[in-house]
Design goal:
This protein is of the alpha+beta class and 150 residues long. The chain has helices spanning 14-21, 107-115, 118-137, and strands at residues 2-10, 34-39, 44-51, 54-66, 70-75, 81-89, 95-103, 148-149. Strands 1, 2, 3, 4, 5, 6, 7 and 8 form an 8-stranded antiparallel sheet that branches. It is globular.
């Protein structure tokens, strides 16, 4: 599995950043290649994304969720991936979002993309787009404050 670690500082309070991240169905607005995310229930998401020119679908399970701190997940089928996004308070008006993503590239296109850093660059760009999205709004579109512990 490959591991990517990226972060971004955002000019919103940590609660605003966290609340927006819990709005999974909004991910296509700032994640390149993500076509659709459907929240099936409190802990399961159905993803549809364009990866290397090919449409991929998978179900992910949220394995841990602590408000204003972290959300961890793993795929249950399809494209193998797992990760955690953590939220850090820098001040009353600034926060840092850190993303760790593990994934298994398959096929020649994905392996070549991995070798030249395509996925790493995409994750970094997605975090920058999240920053732009939430800073432009100044507030979250919603939020889920529940806790998940597996």
């Amino acid at each position: 599995m490959s591991l990517i670690e990226k972060g971004v500082e955002i000019s919103v309070p940590v609660t605003v950043a966290y609340n927006q991240w819990t709005q999974f169905e909004e991910f296509p607005r700032f994640m390149n290649g993500v076509e659709q995310v459907t929240q099936l229930d409190t802990t399961h998401l159905k993803w549809k994304a364009n990866i290397g020119g090919k449409t991929e679908e998978w179900t992910a399970e949220i394995t841990e969720q602590v408000p204003d701190e972290r959300i961890a997940w793993k795929s249950l089928d399809g494209t193998q991936n797992a990760g955690v996004v953590t939220f850090h308070r820098l001040s009353d008006t600034r926060s840092k979002v850190m993303l760790q993503l593990q994934y298994e590239p398959h096929g020649m296109v994905e392996n070549v993309g991995e070798a030249i850093g395509v996925v790493s660059n995409r994750v970094e760009s997605d975090l920058e787009r999240f920053k732009t999205y939430i800073e432009a709004r100044g507030k979250e579109t919603g939020g889920w404050r529940g806790t998940v512990k597996h």
